[in-house]
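Supplementary Methods. Inverse-folding protocol.

Structures were first reduced to a discrete structure-token string of length 354. This string, shown here, constituted the complete conditioning input.
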């Protein structure tokens, strides 16, 4: 029996992924067993001879449509026709009850609350998150948070791409880190699930749960910051917070806000984001986003593992919730944006070889 030839990195990237479709998630970089790849300017770069082991093609979130296989792996069943935004067990509106978290967080502080609860109760030893780079205004960088204070410092959304898998690579090398949570974008969650399904055990055995962030796309940092500074008079060094609620709302350190119509900045969405078909992180244990809510978060509990963690935090009154029926506009927006993302799927996508 002839063994199927392995796919090389060059074939994966050049023939199937293409530069404008590579998400820059860094999954191929961290899993290459021969250290052939480096992460350069938000992309993988071949730095030594590729051995054509094929791992990069197996874990790349853009290489072939394996969503059905991944759903069966994660949920042990297939989605129902009415599950427009993926398999789920429950969907609620929630927020933290901790004032310190609410004063710092993006919307309802649910991600920060769940990570802090998990860390303080020994469910995890650390969490892969992103925080603002000190030397570059409002620029996110991936980090391993191992204290409640570090988790709190990572709260908030930057709307620029952070390759959190790079921090995962560093975390698994630490012997004292045995249980990890991973927070990331839909493309990164897909890569995580492919890593677990393969499996690459050194990663899979330490990952205990994933939190996916609802995402319509990330902005190009240089292009957006240049426009904000030169055309809108916003100094990047004075930005305290960004949020999207129909418009890009920028809060500066003085407390003042400036609102930018999305039409003015849509051109700065990263090219790879425009081909993404997953708005709501459909493969995560828990998916969370703002979706027009003020001071609250929309929470999609997808797996038994994720639901258990959330319910424990709720029982201890670390969170408060209200039914999704009280915020039907957010549910309608979730369905609309999920459907719009699905429309990006190329007609010939299923023709790509496994």
């Amino acid at each position: 029996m002839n063994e199927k030839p392995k796919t090389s990195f060059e074939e994966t990237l050049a023939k199937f992924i293409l530069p404008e479709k590579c998400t820059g998630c860094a999954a191929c970089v961290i899993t290459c067993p021969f250290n052939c790849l480096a992460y350069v300017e938000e992309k993988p770069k071949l730095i030594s001879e590729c051995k054509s082991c094929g791992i990069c093609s197996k874990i790349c979130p853009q290489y072939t449509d394996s969503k059905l296989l991944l759903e069966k792996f994660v949920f042990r069943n297939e989605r129902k026709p009415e599950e427009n935004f993926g398999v789920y067990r429950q969907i609620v509106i929630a927020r933290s009850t901790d004032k310190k978290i609410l004063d710092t967080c993006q919307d309802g502080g649910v991600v920060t609350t769940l990570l802090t609860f998990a860390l303080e109760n020994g469910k995890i030893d650390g969490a892969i998150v992103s925080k603002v780079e000190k030397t570059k205004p409002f620029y996110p960088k991936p980090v391993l948070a191992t204290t409640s204070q570090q988790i709190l410092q990572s709260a908030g959304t930057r709307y620029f791409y952070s390759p959190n898998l790079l921090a995962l690579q560093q975390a698994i090398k630490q012997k004292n880190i045995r249980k990890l949570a991973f927070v990331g974008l839909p493309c990164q969650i897909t890569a995580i699930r492919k890593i677990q399904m393969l499996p690459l055990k050194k990663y899979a055995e330490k990952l205990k749960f994933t939190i996916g962030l609802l995402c319509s796309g990330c902005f190009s940092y240089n292009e957006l910051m240049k426009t904000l500074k030169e055309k809108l008079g916003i100094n990047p060094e004075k930005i305290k917070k960004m949020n999207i609620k129909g418009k890009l709302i920028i809060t500066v350190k003085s407390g003042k806000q400036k609102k930018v119509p999305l039409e003015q900045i849509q051109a700065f969405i990263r090219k790879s984001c425009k081909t993404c078909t997953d708005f709501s992180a459909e493969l995560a244990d828990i998916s969370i986003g703002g979706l027009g809510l003020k001071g609250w978060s929309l929470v999609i509990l997808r797996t038994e593992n994720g639901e258990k963690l959330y319910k424990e935090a709720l029982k201890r009154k670390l969170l408060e919730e209200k039914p999704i029926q009280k915020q039907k506009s957010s549910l309608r927006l979730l369905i609309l944006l999920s459907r719009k993302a699905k429309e990006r799927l190329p007609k010939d996508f299923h023709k790509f070889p496994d």
